[in-house]
Amino acid sequence: QVQVAESGGGSVQAGGSLRLSCAASERTFRVPTLAWFRQAPGKEREFVAVVNWNGGSTKYADSVKGRFTISRDNAKNTVFLQMNSLKPEDTAVYYCAARSSYNVRDIPGEYDYWGQGTQVTVSS
Which of 47, 52, 66, 122 could join 86 via S-S bond, C-beta 3.0 to 4.6 A? Predict the structure, then answer.
């Protein structure tokens, strides 16, 4: 069973930055596709960003393009989400997800393993 664990959440004022990290318990070939999703109170879980096995392909939600950057360090089985110019509407629980397939996807149901989530709160 693959385990993923997020860290790095917290509270920040609008315009600030945070960096989330997610460590996977398995090597890249087991979970080649890694992604971030988020869920705000009363809303459905939504896609944020995804990176393929070697970091060469990424995809972002329109709401975070130009502000968030996803990257990975395969030597450490870790994926990162650098969040800049944060807005109050970015407030949510952020989840790391891992997929056993090499195909990049932005649908929560396509992911096999999930972390417990980390809270990000942006105040105005």
Answer: 122
